[in-house]
Design brief:
119 residues; mainly alpha; 76% helix; Ribosomal_bL20; structural constituent of ribosome; rRNA binding; chloroplast; Large ribosomal subunit protein bL20c
């Protein structure tokens, strides 16, 4: 049986993995056997990390809106209910951005909702 050498193909496939783990510390970026396992672990955690990042941002937005709503003497839950009833299409991200850019606009939105819903 003929012996098959995979020199260029094997080197190329190793180089792809070694390029992926370029910034890792120690042997995680140098030794191929260890590198393979570390790459799999990094890819697995990056998937769940993207989901956690979205959850964290949602929590931050809710905290900011709730803090401002308390200043305006209204609860976040009530504000959310008012917005659903009046079909306002502002999501949490936009409301949180309004707080930074122009809090006066958000105050006007809350006053508008208060007047129109409580009638």
């Amino acid at each position: 049986m003929v012996r098959i050498k995979r020199s260029t193909i094997a080197i190329n496939s190793r180089q792809i993995i070694l390029q992926f783990v370029k910034g890792f510390k120690g042997s995680y970026s140098k030794l191929f056997r260890i590198t393979k396992g570390q790459m799999m672990k990094a890819l697995k955690y990056s998937y769940s990390g993207r989901k956690n990042c979205k959850q964290n941002f949602k929590k931050i937005w809710v905290c900011r809106i709730n803090a401002y709503a308390h200043i305006e003497r209204i609860f976040y839950k009530k504000l959310n209910m008012y917005m659903k009833i009046s079909n306002y299409l502002l999501n949490r991200k936009i409301l949180a951005q309004l707080l930074f850019l122009d809090p006066y606009i958000l105050k006007r939105v809350i006053l508008y909702l208060d007047k129109n819903i409580l009638r």
